[in-house]
């Protein structure tokens, strides 16, 4: 989906060791989710960054951003 951006996320418990980020429509016109299986991403969608965010016991936010790009 060139040119379109979207922001999917998931909240996990501190004890969790894995998570699945499912597709979630931002609006009715949003095409990044597959129409036949709505929690799956549509063909042609790519992920170019992942952000991990956590709060410490002192309520200090910690963020880690990982960028992934297809080299041409």
Structure description:
The chain is mainly β. The radius of gyration is 15 Å and the shape is globular. It is built from no helices and two strands. It has strands spanning 49-55, 61-67. It has a two-stranded antiparallel ribbon.
List keywords for this structure.
0% helix, two-stranded antiparallel sheet, 72 residues, mainly beta
Question: Care to give the gist of this entry?
Answer:
The protein has 72 residues and is an all-beta fold. The chain is 0% helix and 19% strand.
The main sheet comes to: 2 strands, antiparallel
Q: Can you list the strand order of the major beta sheet?
A: 1-2
**Gyration radius, rounded:** 15 Å
What gross morphology would you assign? Answer: globular
Distance between the termini: 17 Å
Count of DSSP strands: 2
The arrangement of helices and strands along the chain is EE
| Helix content class | under 10%
Estimate the mean pLDDT confidence.
84
| β-sheet strand percentage | 15-25%
Unreliable residue stretches: none
Question: What is the structural class?
Answer: mainly beta
């Amino acid at each position: 989906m060139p040119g379109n951006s979207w922001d999917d996320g998931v909240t996990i418990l501190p004890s969790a060791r894995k998570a699945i980020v499912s597709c979630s429509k931002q609006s009715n016109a949003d095409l990044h989710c597959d129409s036949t299986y709505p929690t799956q991403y549509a063909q042609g969608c790519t992920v170019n960054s992942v952000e991990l965010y956590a709060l410490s016991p002192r309520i200090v936010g910690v963020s880690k951003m990982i960028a992934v790009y297809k080299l041409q």
